[in-house]
Fold:
Amino acid sequence: MGCTAYPREFLTLGIEITEPTVAKYMLRRRKPPSQIWRTFLDNHVKSMVSVDFFTVPTLRFQVLYVFLVLAHDRRRILQFGVTAHPTAEWTVQQLRNAFPWDSAPRYLLRDRSELCEGVC
Structure:
């Protein structure tokens, strides 16, 4: 890497300086520190729950659908439902049972770790 004048004022003075030297002494703009995922989880664990559907095969080769709501603060199960024929109404009722009155959490983690704030 050859010497390039950076900035041009140095050339007029007869001083050759490389870009890495200038970069070393230039003031860097500091970005405000952002939360990493682990810090976010630690800060908001009390207001987070996970919701998941999964299937369970039976001995008679039927499929049962399991709906699970899990609180992260104490790793406890808030709602657990099993059905052979899930419907939208059934799913809504499971959520109502998990969060009666005004106890809905602020953050909801769904399948594939998508984060939702409020109602998704």
Summary: The mean pLDDT is 79.
